[in-house]
Design brief:
Protein name: Type I restriction enzyme HsdR N-terminal domain-containing protein
CATH topology of the largest domain: Rossmann fold
InterPro entries: HSDR_N, P-loop_NTPase
Radius of gyration: 34 Å
Strand content: 15-25%
Distance between the termini: 90 Å
Helix content: 40-55%
Structural class: alpha/beta
Number of strands: 29
CATH class of the largest domain: Alpha Beta
Strand order of the largest sheet: 1-4-5-6-7
Number of helices: 30
CATH architecture of the largest domain: 3-Layer(aba) Sandwich
Number of domains: 5
Pfam families: HSDR_N_2 (PF13588)
Length: 785
């Protein structure tokens, strides 16, 4: 009966024979059966499919009706399979949760036929077997006692694979849906239309296949850990032997309590934490299907969760339960190491720890292919930009395009800049009303972030962490907002508790784009008050911007804002221009620290020309190096990086010495574009710093146009050519040629070359003509001079 090779006709004949065997005295024209039926299981809709499946099954479940009224649930087994108590209990449980409730349950293997009353579970023994007796039974069916119904729920949830798998699937889908939204819903982690593939997902699924019981997905805040869990659900759900239960554990609450709340809500029955634990234990020992528990956002100091994860991965629970935890890297170390951090904890011994880093080259290439299907194309040069590898930045940039009316209107492709610039802040400014709670509290925390940047006594580990994320120590935050407001921000998803590498209690900003805007406004306000000593103002600005994510962009935006408010003085710009970058060798005795993916904080000391000391986790090693291999560094890049972003804006300054407003962005483009050093942020990934370039005899560093646009100043040049009227653009290029500066002409050449494929045919033709007529000859003359 469970063999998938039988024909549909044979299957129907067997069903009819079994029903006739059980009720030979009922008119056959009144009996119908459903081999697929559904019932409401709390908030979940459960479908029972009684047809033979691809694999042999011991029993088939069928709903039999008499004159369109449910009469019995049939549990039909093969003739050579004995009837067990489990068969009877499952049939009774199906009948007890079905509405309207069939009064009978029939369990049959063709030879042995048992007819049971749904209400009592006892054999049905009517005084006479007739159609009248059946009608009497249907009329007199009473409501089940609550205890019996709860028992039915427990049996189906714990023993019926067909039921618990559907309940788990629906709970997971509901939990993910609750955390999903549209592009403009910034407080949810998931966007319905966006799920960029990650290699770590396949690695985790492979570990599950091998039977690993505990896996941690670790990474920096906003690195995309939650989306990896979502992708695991999406890909893993296609496998027949596994179901996934996704839980968000954003507070230090018991997993069993969280699970009991979820099950209680889903089933409309009170499931205690103890019962939730027992349910997991039963499922963990099943041989039919594995349950993978996906626990998202485990917070700092989750002692309760630590103990429960240790219990769930102990021998007390079976191999059928597997756990994946998404967790910030510093919290992961607390879970996986002992309290003194000198030994591995029980969780650390059992866990396969997977580190989620920003998108690597293969993932970024896959992301570009994925996004091209959404009519989103990235300009050449984007592959060199570390900032575009950050999921939150990528998501914000994509959201900017997806929500634009021009993109929504037609089928045109959108081309995205290879440079993350001021547009990132401009878009987020339109997304938030920072004057309204809870967003308004970010302005107060931004004051604390600025205070932190001026604290030279901060632990260097914290300083490195603050380079990659907006992090504020709890003690500093409490100077500006109350503990209650911090709790409210946490519950609203605006901040998240974190323990820094230095052991300090901190908060991570969950909406960095909003924090960047608030910092920009505060910086502009500070600069507006410093109208006399521009040298000190610039020094303060560089100190603040050098220690925060997107620091140069934030600084440029604050200056731009100051200009729009009429508070920008040309003397301030002059002070920035005076701080031109230069090429330097690394002197002996230089010390620096770096945070490397998968390694953590690494300390370096240049001992002399031939030796470097490398120290990590109290282990120190002296490395011999060829003096020629010690790279030169480019010092004092930040001022010109700030001006690179700023020069992409139209800037007009009223100066007492001028009779009319002065347009200074062309001046900035010329002076910054003439810099003889590379003006971009070096990548933390070495191979991403491998550019095609020319280094001239005088030390001038020239990026080859074959790289695309890598430098913000080159993108600003391109923006200037696109936005300005042709007369001003022509005038700018003609003046640039007269400077005979190889670096400037090379950047102009790259900007125009990347314009040749523009959808604006008039602009593309202009760029083509300018290259051929003026720029190429001028650049050749520079190289040959």
């Amino acid at each position: 009966m469970g063999n998938s090779s039988i024909s549909e006709a044979q299957y129907e004949a067997q069903m009819r024979a079994a029903i006739t065997h059980a009720f030979p005295w009922l008119p056959s024209d009144g009996i119908t059966h459903q081999d697929s039926f559904s019932f409401k299981f709390g908030h979940s809709d459960i479908t029972v499919n009684g047809k033979p499946q691809s694999s042999a099954r011991a029993r088939l479940d069928i709903l039999v009706k008499y004159k369109n009224t449910p009469l019995a649930i049939f549990e039909l087994k093969k003739p050579d399979i004995k009837i067990t108590d489990d068969d009877i209990e499952q049939g009774l449980s199906y009948a007890r949760v079905h509405h309207p409730r069939p009064p009978l349950v029939v369990v049959s293997n063709s030879k042995d036929v048992r007819i049971l009353e749904t209400e009592t579970g006892e054999r049905w023994c009517p005084t006479e077997k007739s159609e009248a007796a059946v009608f009497s039974l249907l009329e007199q069916s009473s409501r089940l006692a609550q205890d019996d119904l709860k028992n039915a729920v427990n049996i189906l949830l714990g023993r019926s694979q067909n039921v618990w798998t559907q309940v788990v699937k629906q709970i997971t889908n509901q939990n993910i849906d609750e955390r999903s939204g549209k592009w403009n819903e910034v407080l949810v982690p998931f966007v319905n239309q966006l799920l960029i593939p990650r290699e770590l997902t396949l690695e985790a699924l492979n570990l599950l296949e091998k039977g690993n019981r505990l896996i941690t997905i670790e990474g920096e805040p906003l690195s995309g850990k939650s989306n990896v869990l979502r992708e695991i659900v999406e890909l893993g759900s296609k496998k027949e032997n596994t179901e996934f239960l996704y839980i968000n554990a954003d507070t230090d609450i018991s997993l069993f309590s969280t699970l009991s709340d979820i099950l209680t809500h889903s089933l409309d029955w009170n499931i205690s934490p103890g019962e939730a634990s027992n349910w997991l234990m039963k499922l963990s020992k099943t041989t039919e299907k594995n349950l993978v528990l996906l626990i998202d956002s485990v917070s700092v100091d989750s002692e309760t969760i630590r103990k429960e994860v240790e219990a769930l991965t102990s021998e007390k629970y079976g191999k059928g339960l597997q756990i994946i935890i998404a967790i910030d890297d510093t919290v992961a170390d607390q879970l996986c190491l002992s309290r003194n951090r000198r030994a591995v904890s029980a969780i650390g011994n059992r866990a396969n720890r997977l580190k989620l880093t920003p998108l690597n080259d293969k993932e970024f290439s896959n992301a570009l292919n994925y996004l091209s299907n959404m009519r989103l194309l990235f300009s050449k040069g984007s592959e060199f930009n570390d900032e575009l590898r950050q999921p939150w930045i990528l998501k914000t940039i994509i959201a900017n395009v997806m929500t634009s009316e021009k993109y929504k209107e037609g089928e045109l492709f959108a081309v995205i800049s290879p440079i993350v610039g001021l547009e990132l802040l401009h878009f987020s400014r339109r997304q938030f009303d920072s004057s309204q709670t809870p967003f308004s509290l970010y302005r107060e925390l931004a004051k604390g972030v600025l205070e932190e940047q001026q604290d030279s006594d901060r632990a260097y580990q914290l300083q490195l962490e603050q380079l990659n994320a907006f992090i504020i120590r709890r003690n500093t935050a409490l100077k500006y907002i109350s503990s209650q407001e911090l709790a409210e921000m946490s519950s609203n998803g605006l901040i998240r508790e974190k323990r820094s590498e230095s052991g300090e209690n901190c908060y991570v900003i969950r909406l960095p784009e909003l924090m960047a805007n608030e910092l920009s406004r505060l910086i502009a306000s500070h600069l507006a008050k410093c109208k006399e000593n521009y040298c000190e103002s610039v020094k303060w600005l560089l100190n603040v911007s050098s220690g925060i994510p997107l620091g140069n962009i934030i600084a440029a935006d604050s200056i731009s804002y100051l200009g729009r408010k009429g508070g920008l003085n040309l003397d301030f710009i002059d002070e920035l221009l005076k701080l031109s970058p230069s090429k330097q060798t690394i002197p002996s005795g230089t010390k620096f620290a770096a945070s490397w993916n998968n390694l953590g904080v690494v300390d370096f000391t240049f001992i002399d020309n031939g030796h470097i000391s490398i120290e990590m986790d109290n282990h120190r090693k002296i490395v011999d190096v060829d003096p020629d291999d010690i790279p030169a560094v480019y010092d004092n890049i930040s001022p010109y990086m700030i001006l690179s972003y700023l020069s992409g804006q139209k800037i007009v300054i009223e100066n007492d010495k001028q009779t009319s407003p002065q347009r200074i962005d062309p001046i900035l483009l010329t002076q910054v574009g003439s810099a003889t050093v590379p003006l971009f942020k070096m990548s933390t990934t070495l191979n991403r710093n491998s550019f095609h370039h020319h280094e001239l005899d005088d030390g001038t560093f020239i990026l080859c146009s074959s790289n695309g646009i890598v430098e913000p100043i080159t993108w600003s040049l391109m923006s200037f050519f696109i936005k300005e009227y042709r007369g001003l653009a022509n005038e700018f290029i003609e003046k640039s040629i007269t400077h005979r500066n190889t670096a400037l002409m090379s950047r102009v050449y790259t900007a125009l070359t990347e314009s040749l494929n523009s959808a604006d045919e008039e602009y593309s033709n202009w760029a083509k003509n300018m290259l051929a007529r003026s720029v190429k000859p001028a650049l050749s003359a520079c190289f040959n001079s």
